[in-house]
UniProtKB/TrEMBL annotation, chain A:
Highest taxon listed in the record's lineage: Bacteria
Protein name: Sigma E regulatory protein, MucB/RseB
Matches recorded under Gene3D superfamilies: Lipoprotein localisation LolA/LolB/LppX
UniProtKB/TrEMBL annotation, chain B:
Keyword terms, alphabetized: Membrane, Transmembrane, Transmembrane helix
Protein's name in the database: ABC-2 type transport system permease protein
Source species, domain of life: Bacteria
Residues that span the membrane, as ranges: 61-85, 106-137, 168-193, 200-217, 255-274
Pfam families found in the cross-reference section: ABC2_membrane_2
PANTHER family: INTEGRAL MEMBRANE PROTEIN-RELATED, MEMBRANE PROTEIN
Source organism: Amycolatopsis viridis
Amino acid sequence: MVVPLAVVRDARRRRWTVVAMVTAALLTAPLVVAALRPSGPPRDPAALRELVLRSGTVPYQGYAHSTGALALPDLPDLGDVAKLFATTTTMHAWYAGPVRSRVAVLTVTGEQDLYRMPDADYTWDYGTRTLTELTGTPALRLPRASDLLPPDLARWLLNATPGDRLDALPGRNVAGVAASGLRVVPADPDTAIGQADLWADPATGLPVRVEVTARGQRAPGLVSTFDAVEETAPVIATPDLAPGASFTLTTAPDLSRALRALGSARLPPVLHGRPARASGLDGVALYGPGLAAFAVVRVPPEVAGSVADAAATAGGAKSALTAGSVVVLSIPPLSLAVVQPHEGGRGYLLAGLVTPEVLRAAAGELAQRSGR
Amino acid sequence: MIAVELRKLVLRPRMWVSVGLLCLLPAIVAVFLATADFAPPPGQGAAFLSAVVSDGSLYPAAALALVLPLFLPIAVAVVAGDAVAGEAAGGTLRYLLARPVGRTRLLVAKLVAVAVYVTAAIALVVLTSLAVGVLLFGTGGQPGVAGGGAPPPGVISMSGTALSSSALGWRLLGAVAYIVVSMLGFAAITLFLSTVTDSALGAALGGLAVLITSSVLETLDAAAPAKPYLPTHYWLSWIDFFRDPVLWRNIDQGLLLQAGYLVVFFGAAWANFATRDITS
């Protein structure tokens, strides 16, 4: 039987139409579902701020990611911290309360977990197959992935900006939560943060998305958001040591260990007009309030030298001081300064969400003090 | 029809050569690991590679991590690209369609044959790597030749919990099933290309071009909105079977995405092939 050409053409057209329609339906389905999800209602920003600050007891479990666009240099001993702010970190979080939570940082080759339990904190590293029990709470520590979860980041930002201007933002739907929005505009001219936008569940105050934008920038430099979240209480047990894994116990504060901070000389009580806050660590101090705070760490000359080289390679500006030199690197909203006193004296690392001018002035005072 | 395609597949030497090569790569890596007696540093190399030195029963997972990114897709592209275009190039497609079977049935049979090939290839990789892993690294409590100086044995999930043999077994089965589905989505793309051209090599290369493009876009931050739709985006999510609890989110998303690719590209292959002029 000979099939007429027109019939074949019609059949062909019908089949491709079916394929095109199925393809279009599959491509548009996620967009339609997202568009149909309700946004959160507008809320008074001050009331929402209070609700968010009180949300520390709201249990949740979810899957989140944070994306940092800060092109940090390859800092010696601080590679993991730099990655947090320069790449995407994916996390699975279980939060039953302030002293019972678990955050798993997921990678394609492993996993790192942080458990906060009533008796102690624990970390698990699949790469080294080591369970570590952390005893004691350092007053000052390096940032870790769990700090970038939307609830933790939002509450830290709001705690650091009391009395700053608040604006309402249009609601949006984040991970299925109809969230209300809030913008904080820091008033302190010394901070490099231009604004922080956050969205939270208007019923419980649980933050589900945070965007931090540097002063003078349009795109946020740090975004942390849930991809899926349920506001239900998870069951979290103290991790057991699996056969074949290692166990360590540590009380050492990680900041001083990571930076090999030197505690032989005390840091000045006031720097650039800002009083030092007790860090609980020798050779480490935090100066100033809120978002305009910056940390100072006294380090050996070789550490200062390698960080200065890394900062200079990344585009840091080197300038002479009365007694020494300083390399200042600005990656909005973060600024970093490395002081290298003359004659191989001990150096200082300065870092904070402040303008580079603040760190340059503080570096000058530190170098002058070392030169005496 | 399916039985005929499977018989043809089994009788093709190139099929056995490709499966042999797939099994050989993990074996070579295992020999180097065993003779060097040290694992890659944490976070470097393929997943699980740093853990297998203390327990060879985890080596099938490491083997899957070794072959999945490149070697397995190449093998799938060759087989799927050859499915229709190879018949056309060999001049047998006309005779094949002269039998009283529909073109749609033929296409389904071709896809089933590719699915069987992928399943068999992965199963053989798992079995051979299990044998090689246990032989070279030993199992819990029985260190092998190279395991004498290794840390105490034990299969540990990525989350730090101990995995029993049965738990490891079902997670491995889940990972294998997930990888098969992942490869089927890719096979559907290459099968469609195989219906477009009469060159099996051209179809295979077209499939590999899709693979490379997807992999390149995966590394590009600017392509973030498109990443969840890239065919390779969730390929490595089989690793989530080895977390505790199993992280189903990406696994579910990956299965949905591959189902979408399977529907769209098998549909396109059907639309093209069912009404195509067969001249060879």
